[in-house]
Design brief:
This protein has twelve helices and 19 strands. It is an alpha/beta fold. The chain has two domains: 186 residues, Alanine racemase (TIM Barrel, Alpha-Beta Barrel); 123 residues, Lyase, Ornithine Decarboxylase, Chain A, domain 1 (Beta Barrel). Bound molecules: pyridoxal-5'-phosphate. Pyridoxal-5'-phosphate binds next to loops.
């Protein structure tokens, strides 16, 4: 018998969410972002469910090669570009489009003889101050790229720092548009949050490409409390489920877990559940974090440990060893659990560790 924890990946939900992204961004070239092992869902599941996307975008070259091996023939985009001449070679061999975001990377690209031209997404900094050329340099960088014989099609790209806030991307969008006006090149601007404002982000020339990530997995790019995934009509793609593996009866004053941080105030029943931080359950989830036991909401008690958590089942008399538990997913939004733990759905989904088997349905 394997340990009961499993991440069930709902390919129907992945496809549904892709359709939502499509409907929001009519006419755009849609890159489904599958970095970080498809946000924890597994690239094998993603490559099948996202068959209708125009391309797959990711960070990790080795996973991009794996996607080719799995039979993905459409475009691939490396979102941080390449880190060495060997990578540039592999990217060209496997027909991957690449980001170029700084002078060092551009010089290495120019200096590496490649077997074919590469499509380049030239990334500009519009306020995030993470990666990207200064937007004021747009014309110079584009001119230099155009002079290089290894350059295929050029796309102008930026990544918004504040697209999840109301109108948070408008200033960055204005700077981008000003600095690139007149350059007859396609643009790629929108992450999930900006896909929900595509009317204002789109150029209208039908050559935009968009890069939704988190929304495809059925979590919100916004604040859960105000714009939940359900309110955006997204369906959770991962259900992290497990079972009760032990039950304890507590007397008033008895404590639970490391550090004895939770102390029973009355006679209580506590179920011990096969899931811990080594599975990716957030260690900082405090007592009170919601957990579903047999479909009923209850609360975490005590500290999350490596392999186990405890939940209050005082009012769930039928809960016993073997009772099913949902940590997040179809019935309980990952964003709600993540928020309780002081984090976001993105982190919780990508944290699900390799010891948790993924089952695609
Ligand atoms: C991760 C990433 C995305 C997707 O962002 P979401 O918020 O998950 O939609 C888009 N573009 C770039 C460059 C990224 O790194």
């Amino acid at each position: 018998m394997p340990r009961p924890i499993v991440a069930t990946i709902d390919s129907g939900a992945l496809r549904h969410n892709l359709n939502v992204a499509r409907a929001l961004t009519p006419g755009a070239h849609l890159w489904a972002v599958v970095k970080a092992n498809a946000y924890g869902h597994g690239i094998e599941a993603a490559v099948n469910a996202f068959a209708d996307a125009d391309g797959l975008a990711l960070i990790e070259l080795e996973n991009a090669v794996r996607l080719r091996e799995l039979g993905w023939k459409k475009p691939l985009l490396l979102l941080e570009g390449c880190f060495s001449s060997i990578d540039w070679h592999a990217a060209a061999e496997h027909r991957m489009a690449c980001v170029i975001h700084c002078d060092e990377q551009l010089s290495e690209f120019e200096a590496t003889p490649l077997p074919r031209k590469l499509d380049i997404y030239v990334k500009f900094n519009t306020g995030m101050n993470r990666l990207g050329f200064r937007i004021e340099r747009a014309r110079d960088v584009v001119r230099r790229l155009m002079l290089h014989e290894g350059t295929g099609e050029i796309t102008l790209m930026t990544h918004f720092a504040c697209a999840d806030e109301r109108d948070g991307h408008l200033e960055a969008l204005r700077r981008f548009s000003d600095a690139t006006s007149g350059l007859p090149l396609p643009r790629s601007l929108a992450n999930s949050a900006a896909c929900f404002d595509f009317d204002r982000v789109a150029t209208g020339d039908g050559r935009d490409s968009v890069r939704p990530g988190i929304m495809l997995y059925g979590a919100t790019p916004f604040t859960h409390a105000t714009r939940s995934a359900a309110s955006l009509k997204l369906r959770p793609a991962m259900t992290l489920s497990t079972e009760i593996i032990g039950v304890q009866s507590l007397r008033p004053g008895d404590a639970v877990g490391y550090g004895a941080t939770y102390v029973a105030a009355r006679d209580e029943r506590v179920a011990v559940i096969a899931a811990g931080y080594a599975d990716g359950y957030p260690r900082h989830a405090p007592s009170g974090t919601p957990v579903l036991v047999n479909g009923q909401r209850t609360r975490l008690v005590g500290r999350v440990s490596m392999d186990k958590i405890a939940v209050d089942v005082t009012d769930l008399p039928l809960a016993r060893v073997g009772t099913p538990v949902e940590l997040w997913g179809a019935q309980l939004a990952v964003d709600e659990v993540a928020n309780a733990a002081g984090t976001i759905g993105y982190e919780s989904l990508t944290a699900v560790s390799s010891r948790v088997p993924r089952r695609v349905v």
